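User: Show me sequence and structure for the first protein, then do the same for the second.

Assistant: Starting with the first protein.
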Amino acid sequence: MKFNHVATRLDLRHFELVVEMFKVKLGFVELRQTGRAVWLRQPETNVDLQFSRSDTVHRDADKLRSQVSFLSETPKDALEDLAAWLRAGGTEASVGSYSEKEFFLDAPAAFVDFVIEAMVPELADYPVKI
């Protein structure tokens, strides 16, 4: 088996706004869309991200441990920009931190079981060669 994509859930009321944010603000390209899900890929990467529409009223209480993660030289600023974009679209969003090098964006009404993480690139400089 070969790794293909990661899937997570978005509240169906905020689905289009979040997908649009990934496309407009982060440069993702839509690969395919069905009535229940969309598959996206950021150019120059090799892992796809699938968002599924969800009408669940329960939000994962431990979702801070499930992330769609990005690298950035300025992770907090990058997430603050996304939070402002979501708020301008009518969705509550806030930025928090795991450490001085790792930050997260939550949009509680939209993100069912994950947050968006951004961290400095040095944290992904692994000593393993593949």
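Switching to the second protein now.
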Amino acid sequence: MTTTSTSPAPVSLYGFLTPKPGHADELRKLLMDLVELTRGHEGSLQYHLHEQEDGRFFLYEVWRSQEDLDRHNATPLLRTIMNALPEHLEGTPEAYFGAMRSSYPGRRDLT
């Protein structure tokens, strides 16, 4: 018997944010405030913040579905933080979005 998964494919967001000179600490705090909060949201499979040697921040998120990501994006705290980011950013964030095509570890239904 062959079964077909009806589960949606996970989606991922990833990108780089460059702080304005003198704003790295403020930007780091804003982004760190998101980490544990976001990890607790329904459908959040991974949420990681990295700091590069060149001073840029790299965010990597994986969501169970687009619906889960949309629900996260609609939260008041995220909107507040997103509105505060431009004050601390040098230029526009370099951001990427896509559906995950490789299997997700431990979740056969997400392949």
